[in-house]
């Protein structure tokens, strides 16, 4: 099938070329003929011997011999010299010498002093001729030169030229057919022996399968142009880029590339099952570099909307912090019970009473103060656990008096807040422990009803963060604590971005760090 199509294309192309070349050759041949006839006629008319012989009325035989000699030398069919009375002084047919020209009107036009072309029927048949006037020294017209070719000669020359062209085109056709057969075989080898209709069928099947896959698939070339994008990926791409279309062959959106593909393009390594946040769209993606003949060709990404999975992960992360808080409270409670149990065994009842009063006083100061300002049980319990956990490491956790989360329902964001607060407090504790001296963490939590924004602030006097690290601290996988770390703060940034909130870091190396977060949200206000 491919061979037939290629051969047909070659034949049609050659036929069109033949017609165009033939037309060009005919036009060019007639142009050359005009130039040839006019040039010969003018040369003869300006020849001094011709002028002298015509003007002096020398014997006609001398002019006849001259005309025949010129005619044979320049390959024209006739050279006719006329005197001013339009009587032939020479002619290829000697019997016509001395007789008037066959077309007096045509010849008489030349007596005006201007040469001209003419296509007419004469003694030798239909022909193409040029008339040139003969001037004497006084610039008077004394005769006419007529030089021409018959149509038979012209057609013969054209046929010879066309035979040459036709022969060349036939040779080209033969070479083209051989090349087409070779090329078709080569193409079929490259296409695994498939015919065009089979390829089209498989491409349709491939497109159907790609569009039915639940995951989005997008592939880009090494020059960042889109090679493949199924319907699922198209939907996500348009949603992430405010309904921007993504035609195949166009450059991928810069923000989409920076988030999803840049690291793979830089490192040439596969990224598997990572969470990405692209202009409001959360996806789990696997991005794989593509190599062709060991040369980097681009990358392909499979995307899946994992909002629900991330939400579940957030809940599980919150649960982890609950457990850690409970573990810390349980540990502190057991320590206190051991103290009370020991005092009772030693019969130090007065000391037991005094110790219990101290515990109650501290509970009222800490827990009462906390529960008065934080009336969300899960959040208050978590902060209490963190206070106990930090105290065991000689770190004081202080809740600012201006904190107030006492009259709102936080079911929708409590897991996010706990996750964010837990990450910041864990990092603060780690930073303080690196200084090997007592530390302090200050917390502030507020919900502003007027602005519908939840404010969270964590301040410590730890090691601090330098400016370079501040630029990278929220990058996926970046950590100073070793491998397989650096995901917590990246997820925090994802949560804040999802709420279209802000994170501000103010840190000085050796002095400490202050992190300020705003989470825009609308919470239900209670009457308590």
From TrEMBL:
What PANTHER family would the database entry show? SENSOR HISTIDINE KINASE DCUS, TWO-COMPONENT HISTIDINE KINASE
Q: Name one GO molecular function term.
A: ATP binding
Q: What is its EC number?
A: 2.7.13.3
Q: Tell me the protein's name.
A: histidine kinase
- A Pfam match: sCache_3_2
Q: Name one GO cellular component term.
A: plasma membrane
Which lineage?
Answer: Bacteria, Bacillati, Bacillota, Bacilli, Bacillales
Its main localization is: membrane
Subcellular localization, as worded in the UniProt entry: Cell membrane
Q: Which UniProt keywords apply?
A: ATP-binding, Cell membrane, Kinase, Membrane, Nucleotide-binding, Phosphoprotein, Transferase, Transmembrane, Transmembrane helix, Two-component regulatory system
Catalytic activity from the UniProt record: ATP + protein L-histidine = ADP + protein N-phospho-L-histidine
